[in-house]
Amino acid sequence: MKKILIINGHPDKNSFNFALAEAYYRGANKTGIEVSLIHIADLTFNPNLQFGYRQRMELEPDLLSSLEKIKAADHLVWIHPVWWGGMPAMMKGFIDRLFLPGITFKYRENSVWWDKLLKGKTARIITTLDQPSWYYFLFFGRPSVNQLKKSVLQFCGVNPVKVTYIGIIKKSNEKQRTKWLNDIFDLGEKGC
What we know:
The chain is α/β, with parallel strands linked by helices. It is 39% helix and 21% strand. It contains 6 helices and 7 strands. Strands 2-1-3-6-7 form a 5-stranded parallel beta sheet, with helices on both faces. Strands 4-5 form a two-stranded antiparallel ribbon. Helix 1 links the parallel strand 1 and strand 2 (34-39). Helix 1 (16-30) runs parallel beside helix 6. It is globular and about 55 Å long. The two termini are 14 Å apart.
């Protein structure tokens, strides 16, 4: 049976991102897919990679649990808002602390190449914007998506990585938000 892990990077429990995560969860759960959900805001950990890769920090219990869920999942669904072109700081810290050499990738000795330790997994990024997605791509080059998709997930072997843009959030009304929630529920139902 397919295992899906939803990772919500928004720190506010009253945010639309939380509602999107719950909608995807309900859709996947309806079909009997094994699905779990991590709200990064609920975790207790130091988001600062204090020593870089020079010295390994001990992973807190919440990070160890999250790592086991990531390793067990077949499909990862990342949900986050775009702030200043990037992702929320806590989400970046979550990635910094977990996506480490020897855990999600492994450098090869005397080589510029690396082993991708998350091969066989797929992902979807669902990101909310306060600008049209075409504007985010054309004028800014979609930095948060490039960072998460190319520099993190694909670097570690996750492929394919599909992207769903939702916005303009700040100008949306209840009818539009309901449509977006239904669309994400449908993605969950399809397990993609």
